[in-house]
């Protein structure tokens, strides 16, 4: 769309996509007991692992069966990698970091003591780790799309060894490391209701630091995108009126578009204020996030300036004043503004840190 001295012009319009997050995190597998039909089955185990036995009159307290212990209790569990889908060095590094975490913190979260030890080529590992290109089923949680799946070991589940941990590599080290920690937590006997919640919880907001603020930034940005798209529709209508020489109607539409862009500017300002409150942590990139918000703020400011000229020029033309020069300045600024490159939605979500997250539904 170029300069013009009359109604002839070609309208330009761009639409942005609203941001959205992807939900997912590792799930647990049921214990494979190897039933007679060869199919996987689930073993129901008492919370404390005790045998539910009714005492007879002849039994004494000393004859009561003692609680069973976790298969990894009081021993060193050898962790080995059975299959690599992507980068072995990277997997070994992230797996090693996850193992270190549990070795340093297991006494805080487990009712027993154990040690995890990585051996790259163990003949008889206690925990077998393998990468997969995808995981379509995970025990009772079949039919999903999982980032990880592991044998859920509880007290007395000795038949569950060696425990199986399946992983789908993620591009983010932080997210992939979190999934590995999550799956090892299941092997250690932790469920989704157990601490540490930032690793084991099903709820996404419990897994990620400052989740509410990050989600607020995305929500505000989504609202500004909707305001932008509404303004784009309004501008399209205004340009159509101007093309037909209906400058009075065009002026009204330009005024409405200006109000919509002012609303968009306030939303970006609010998003920026929230973003500045975020700490610098993985997997978010706060500096990149603020940079993208600044670019969108500059875009909106430039568009507002263009609309002011378009509105003023239209009003002058209606008043039989020489408003074409002002109007054309608005057209030029509008054309220059829409050529600016706005951040891709995927990059925006990645900078906030809420991307490629896997979570189970509440009933899982």
TrEMBL record:
| GO terms classed as biological process | proteolysis
Q: Please list the residue ranges annotated as the Peptidase M10 metallopeptidase domain.
A: 86-206
* Annotated PROSITE patterns: PROKAR_LIPOPROTEIN
Query: Matching SUPFAM superfamilies, A to Z?
Result: Metalloproteases ('zincins'), catalytic domain
GO molecular-function terms, A-Z: metal ion binding; metallopeptidase activity
Which EC numbers characterise this protein's activity in its record? Answer: 3.4.24.-
**Sorted UniProt keywords:** Hydrolase, Metal-binding, Metalloprotease, Protease, Zinc
Q: Where is this region: Disordered?
A: 32-76
The UniProt regions of compositional bias labelled Polar residues, in chain numbering, are 32-45
* InterPro entries in the record: MetalloPept_cat_dom_sf (IPR024079), Pept_M10_metallopeptidase (IPR001818)
This protein's record includes keyword Metal-binding:
yes
Enzyme class at the top of the EC tree: hydrolase
User: Would you say which domain of life the source belongs to?
Assistant: Archaea
Protein name per the record: Matrixin family metalloprotease
């Amino acid at each position: 769309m170029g300069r013009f001295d009359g109604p002839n012009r070609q309208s330009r319009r761009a639409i942005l996509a609203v941001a959205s997050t992807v939900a997912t995190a590792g799930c647990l597998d049921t214990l494979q007991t190897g039933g007679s039909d060869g199919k996987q089955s689930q073993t129901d185990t008492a919370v404390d692992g005790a045998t539910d036995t009714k005492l007879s009159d002849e039994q004494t307290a000393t004859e009561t069966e003692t609680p069973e212990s976790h298969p990894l209790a009081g021993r060193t569990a050898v962790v080995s990698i059975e299959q690599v889908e992507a980068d072995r060095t990277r997997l070994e590094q992230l797996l090693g970091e996850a193992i270190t975490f549990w070795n340093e913190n297991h006494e805080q979260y487990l009712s027993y003591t154990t040690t995890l030890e990585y051996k790259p080529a163990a003949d008889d590992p206690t925990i077998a780790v393998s990468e997969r290109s995808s995981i379509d089923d995970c025990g009772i949680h079949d039919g999903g799309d999982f980032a990880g799946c592991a044998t859920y070991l509880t007290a007395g589940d000795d038949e569950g060894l060696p425990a199986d941990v399946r992983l789908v590599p993620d591009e983010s080290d932080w997210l992939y490391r979190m999934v590995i920690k999550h799956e090892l937590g299941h092997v250690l006997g932790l469920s989704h209701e157990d601490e540490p919640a930032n690793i084991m919880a099903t709820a996404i907001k419990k897994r990620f630091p400052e989740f509410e603020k990050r989600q607020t930034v995305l929500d505000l940005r989504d609202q500004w995108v909707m305001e932008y798209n509404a303004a784009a529709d309004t501008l399209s209508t205004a340009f159509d009126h101007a093309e037909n020489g209906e400058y009075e109607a065009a002026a009204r539409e330009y005024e409405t578009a200006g109000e919509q862009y002012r609303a968009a500017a306030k939303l970006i300002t609010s998003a920026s204020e929230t973003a500045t409150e975020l700490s610098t942590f993985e997997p978010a990139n706060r500096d990149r996030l603020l940079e993208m918000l600044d670019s969108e703020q500059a875009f909106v400011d430039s568009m507002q300036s263009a609309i002011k000229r378009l509105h003023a020029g239209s009003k002058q033309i209606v008043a039989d004043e020489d408003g074409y020069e002002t109007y054309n300045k608005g057209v030029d600024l509008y054309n220059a503004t829409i050529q600016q490159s706005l951040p891709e939605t995927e990059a925006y979500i990645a900078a906030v840190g809420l991307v490629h997250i896997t979570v189970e539904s509440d009933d899982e």
